[in-house]
Amino acid sequence: MIEVSAALLRGAVFLAGEPLECLVTLRNPLPPDATSASSEMLAWASAQIHCQFHASESRVALPPSEDSRHDVQAENETVFVPNRGERGHCILSTPPKILFCDLRLDPGESKTYSYCEMLPVDGPPSFRGQAVKYVYKLTIGCQRVNSPIKLLRVPFRVLVLHGLKDYQCPQDEAVAPSNPFLEEEEGGAKKDSRLADLATELLMAATSRRSLHLYNISNSRGKVGTFCIFKAVYKIGEDIVGTFNFSEGDIPCLQYLVSLQTEERIQEAFQHRRGQPVSYSTHARHQESCLHTSRTSFSLPIPLSSAPGFSTNIVSLKWRLHFEFVTSREASQRQAPPEGPPLEEASRWSGVEQMDVDTFSWDLPIKVLPTNPLLASSVSQVPGANSLTI
């Protein structure tokens, strides 16, 4: 018996274009004083990254698969297929790397191997939607002689920042200032750190630009108020802050609801039926009664576990703010309650029991980008490690 464990070195969230590093440890759990006959042998082990695509058959029409091979493994088969036994389609994979061949472990002995692979920049981001899913996994395959292959899978999450691959190799790297008091970094490590720093700089530049966006809110009866937001580009983990001004409106607003939503749209060529509805998911909402309110505001957090906006040949994901307003048909409802009389002349004021109202909605598109993968890893529910016994 051999225990095999795999652990990602830097959390379970990565940017496309970053290197993924994993330590694979194999251990013979028998006590060291066991006999030599208790030594264990493994023929080989390989590792590979792949992206598995799942689609809802009722919403997505995919062409028939050209791969007609049966998903059955013979007892002595040595072909390493990382996605064997999984549902869906493998749409992206890296070349397999052999970790070792003919490994012998004595009782109590363990050996650790390092696996490193660059994540492809042309793949989709990790996404779990209502119609499709993109799931990334690192698969380690191990086999004893004349035994079936055992697969150990470690799931992880990939964020895609479009345009990052165009800046991976800056031309001024050779003339960049260096610190003589620090040890020279290896070329790969230096490039990796520059890539992470560059991604952070690009995200900061894109999401820190503030400009006042002012919108008039009105319906067929007149103006309700104005809405103000300070930017339209965010990264996951940020808060969306907006303000309302109802003091200049002609129509009293009784209540409003703001929802942060994603729009999952199947591309026309892959729709199961023409004109099928778009899928919406709500990630945060704010509801408030605002009669006799002149100014108010809201704050909606973008969950770190959500996917940024993206588009593939099958599906596109967009973000929006969805507003719903309830307004009164009587302008007199804007009047505030009368001021209280002196204590000796007690009286009571109560609101109306019924009123005629109108409702209407409005959608405001926003752009949501990825965030620093280290920040997303701090709250990720993906463990980034797994183990099995052969």
Automatic annotation (TrEMBL):
One of its GO terms (biological process) is retrograde transport, endosome to Golgi. InterPro entries: Rgp1. It holds the Pfam family Rgp1. One of its GO terms (molecular function) is small GTPase binding. One of its GO terms (cellular component) is cytosol. This is RGP1 homolog, RAB6A GEF complex partner 1. It comes from Podarcis muralis (Wall lizard). The lineage of its organism: Eukaryota, Metazoa, Chordata, Craniata, Vertebrata.
